[in-house]
Write a structure and sequence with these properties.
eight-stranded mixed sheet; alpha/beta; 299 residues; 38% helix
Length: 299
């Protein structure tokens, strides 16, 4: 892929068939060392991490395309089973990657999936960095443009299937992430994301997911971690939060974060994808946290 070549990254690609979750996922592996599992946000793909990966040259980076994203297989999500499916998905993924204890770096939807798992299976994820608001896992989130129309059946799929020029897609990306992150994204990244999002199975998966976790502008109550669930999480997570995150301001997230044992919330310049706005600041926070949780690069 030209995107990874742009950053001098050599990758290996493989697929894992997860019978328990009924889906086939693409994984891209880069470098060597302690394993880090990267989970991206909704309607994106594992390609979104490429501009940041030089910061993790001493690790084995495992970039996962979530169901119905990138080149992974589709899933039809259901309101009643979406949380249970995500927990089974990550359990099966960690098993396939031979990770008894996982170090996870996750953005938005990926962060929500990881937090749901950490609340349901305390201990399997031993190190968790959640970057940006973790989708609708915390109280107070508003589902804004460009995500809100995706929650409407039929409309969501149609919206995702519309062929957009690079310029228009970059504008939408700026609404969802931040204008600065969208402006700095190389053309190779923008093209990779916009073409993957239009795949028919991907569009249908994302639309079903957005409907399963949201009611147009607000999360479904079952999507939000309860106080008791937040208190069950043992991963002592790091939250790396953009000061201008459009979906939930860091100040409004602090009460929920405070209920998670030994969790830390660090605010950095940027929006919903702060590693694209402030790559050095985010990387320093994350690598220090990885070392503190036993996943230092010297291992």
């Amino acid at each position: 892929m030209r995107l990874f070549a742009r950053y001098g990254l050599e990758r290996e690609e493989f697929f894992v068939d997860l019978a328990e979750a009924g889906v086939r996922l693409r994984v891209q592996s880069i470098e060597s060392g302690p394993s880090l599992v990267f989970l991206h946000g909704v309607s994106l793909s594992s390609a979104v991490w490429a501009p940041w990966l030089h910061e993790f040259a001493d690790y084995r980076v495992l970039l996962v395309d979530l169901p119905g994203h990138g080149l992974s297989g589709p899933v039809s999500y259901d309101v009643r089973t979406v949380r249970d499916h995500s927990v089974k998905l990550l359990d099966a993924l960690f098993d396939a990657l031979a990770l008894d204890e996982a170090a996870v770096i996750a953005h938005s939807l990926g962060g929500m999936f990881a937090l749901w798992h950490a609340a349901s299976r305390p201990g399997r994820i031993r190190s968790l960095t959640a970057i940006g608001d973790p989708a609708v896992a915390f109280p107070g989130v508003r589902v804004r443009m460009p995500l809100s129309p995706m929650t409407v059946p039929i409309l969501g799929t149609a919206m995702l299937r519309v062929p957009l020029s690079r310029t228009l897609y970059r504008r939408l990306l700026g609404q969802g992430l931040s204008p600065g992150a969208a402006a700095s994204a190389p053309d190779e990244l923008v093209d990779s994301l916009r073409f993957a999002a239009r795949r028919p199975a991907n569009a249908a998966t994302v639309a079903s997911l957005m409907h399963a976790i949201n009611r147009f502008r607000r999360p479904r109550p079952a999507s939000v971690l309860s106080e008791s669930e937040r208190r069950r999480i043992t991963a002592e997570p790091l939250f790396c939060w953009g000061a201008d995150d459009p979906f939930l301001a860091p100040a409004h997230a602090r009460p929920a974060v405070a209920e998670i044992r030994s969790a830390t919330l660090e605010v950095v310049p940027g929006g919903h994808a702060p590693w694209l706005d402030s790559p050095g600041s985010c990387a320093e926070l994350v690598t220090d946290y990885l070392a503190a949780t036993g996943f230092g690069s010297a291992l």
